[in-house]
Amino acid sequence: MLRGNSKDVEELGKYILDARNFTSDTTNVENFTGSLDLIDGQMQKQNVTVFHNNSIAEDVVFYQGGEPVSGLLEISNGKIADSSVRVEGKSLIHSAELTSKAFGSGVLGIYGEYIVAIGLLLFAFSTAIAWSYYGDRSTAYIFGEGAVPWYRTIYVVCFIAAAVVDTTVIWNIAYVVVALVTIPNLIALFVLRKEMKEQVDSYVMEK
After folding, report:
1. How far apart are the first and last CA of the chain?
2. Same domain, yes or no, for 76 and 102?
3. Could you report the per-residue pLDDT of 102-138, keeping only the tens digit for each?
């Protein structure tokens, strides 16, 4: 549907913008209300589209009590009426691939996808080196140079794990860790507040 009908693509974009409250009532797409016919957890042919991560979901399977659902499933305004039903599936595209496709549909055409791929490669490579060095020096400062090989081993193992784990999980972990990093920084700022004030006053006077 995405590749074959430009109107569908346009309506999908409007629907997402409306859902995020960037726009209001711009799309003709309506949330489904009714019954889904399921066999072994899979929808039978119906004029219904499932969204996940702001894109069309694929390989969608409905479970209840760990078993695929068969029969009719009631849907109310796009939401499953029975909260015990669990939905699993994959988005058609997401993360870097979604960004790449978005650039590819712009004025640069297919070259837009190459720009995203090259930019992502350079960003990932430079970030990996920079974070490795920061962690290396921090480990040496806190535990001594003898602990650096252990840090590097853990870093490489985590790097390999991140390459095979779902990117959504990795980003969620990154969000939490980056937030936690602010705690020791805030503590240090509070403890050294007098020294900081002296440095600021000295800078203002010398300037």
Report:
1. 63
2. no
3. 777 777 777 877 888 888 889 888 988 998 999 999 8
Give the pTM: 0.49
CA 29/CA 18 separation, integer angstroms: 10
Give the total residue count for the chain.
207
146: phi then psi, degrees, rounded to nearest 5:
-65, -20
Percent of the chain with pLDDT over 90: 15
Nearest of 75, 47, 54 to residue 12 by alpha carbon = 54
Residue 159 CA: distances (Å) to CA of 61, 129, 153, 155, 169: 31, 12, 10, 6, 14
Structural domain count of the chain: 3
99, 54 contact by CB (below 8 A):
no
Together in a domain, 72 and 126:
no
State CA 25 to chain mean position distance: 26
The structure tokens listed for 11 are 């309506």
Asked if the structure places residue 1 within a domain, the reply is: no
Mean pLDDT, range 27-54, rounded to an integer? 80
User: What is the residue range of 123's domain?
Assistant: 93-164
Contact 60, 75 (CB under 8 A): no
Which H helix or E strand runs over 6?
helix 6-19
Domain contains 184? yes
